[in-house]
Amino acid sequence: MEIARSLQNVPSSYIREILSAASDPSVISLAGGLPDPDTFPIELMRSTFEGLCDKPEVFQYGTTAGYAPLLDFLSDYYQLLSNHSAVVCTGSQQGLDLVARAYINPGDTVVMEAPSYLGAMQVFGLVGANIVTVSQVASGPNLEQLEACFKINAPKMFYAVPDFHNPTGVCWTLETRQKVAELCIQYNVAFIEDAPYRELRFTGEALPMVSTFCPDHSIVFRSFSKIASPGLRIGVVTGKKSYIEPIIKIKQGADLHSSIPMQAALLGLLKHDDFDAHLESVKEIYKARYQTLFEALEAKLPESCTLNSVDGGMFIWVGIPSCDTFELAKVLLSKGVAVVPSPVFYPEANEQPSALRLNFTNSTPEELVKAVDVLANVLSEHQ
């Protein structure tokens, strides 16, 4: 049976392929955005999981929007406006898929930064979106390009990761957040704010979300994969009720609802007295690993390479001299180090700047230093 044309046009995920190769325990993987399993708050969830056996109601079908006690908690936790609501999804990735299917017709224009999150490009590609990109600078998207893009293309939505961007780690400035919100209101563009790394800030003060400045022109994705556990597969989508209701309709047809026991487990974790301390501990671990990786890169990479510091998240973006980055990644993998080459983060991979995305959250400090040694040697040989 022939697969759908929309799927025929979507290339295989390089991330999926390289993660498969990197599953070899002898490989140091800086490729995936994986949290360290040692940080999973299993002990904090133990009593909740055991208590689920006394709650048969959570093993029954539930409402599509989500487990009511969790929704009530999240409404207060995120201080949702009175005209806003939430829907719980099987990871925020499902939320992205549901929004795309609810709102994008083939040919509708979606704006993204370049580079951008690979998973979002795949989702928008599957629904036939016309993806238009604007370049990224140290403060966030190039605002002049963004306004020109809004004027010329009349896009339906602008998707972005303002806090510790995947793949570059850039965190938008306050001024950029305010200006993007202003432009979205002015040109009637929905801002799709993906915030999976927001809680992983380990330096500086948190900035308001972009959606704070354009609440009725925004849909927000939040994830618990990075601060709790990816295996829970729980994310939440929030926005004004008229935005959320179509998403609930699509989700009902997709899977009826996300796992109720997992939602109940997440609620128990978020309400646990020690959850805030757990989150602080995770941030300290990741901060130390980031510093180890960044200092090793600064000390050992050839001068022709560039890298920018980050204040949180999971990634460092390393600019390298022009080369075939896929071939470079294959060479590194043959030497026991997995990385992700830059072209996969662009809708059009040809003639993009050469760079590598490096993850620092799922390797020990010793592994990070060893990986940099391999990377530096291979880059020197290539030059």
Automatic annotation (TrEMBL):
<keyword id="KW-0032">Aminotransferase</keyword>
<keyword id="KW-0663">Pyridoxal phosphate</keyword>
<feature type="domain" description="Aminotransferase class I/classII large">
    <location>
        <begin position="50"/>
        <end position="375"/>
    </location>
</feature>
<dbReference type="InterPro" id="IPR004839">
    <property type="entry name" value="Aminotransferase_I/II_large"/>
</dbReference>
<keyword id="KW-0808">Transferase</keyword>
<dbReference type="InterPro" id="IPR050859">
    <property type="entry name" value="Class-I_PLP-dep_aminotransf"/>
</dbReference>
<dbReference type="InterPro" id="IPR015424">
    <property type="entry name" value="PyrdxlP-dep_Trfase"/>
</dbReference>
<dbReference type="GO" id="GO:0008483">
    <property type="term" value="F:transaminase activity"/>
</dbReference>
<protein>
    <submittedName>
        <fullName>PLP-dependent aminotransferase family protein</fullName>
    </submittedName>
</protein>
<dbReference type="Pfam" id="PF00155">
    <property type="entry name" value="Aminotran_1_2"/>
</dbReference>
<dbReference type="InterPro" id="IPR015422">
    <property type="entry name" value="PyrdxlP-dep_Trfase_small"/>
</dbReference>
<dbReference type="InterPro" id="IPR015421">
    <property type="entry name" value="PyrdxlP-dep_Trfase_major"/>
</dbReference>
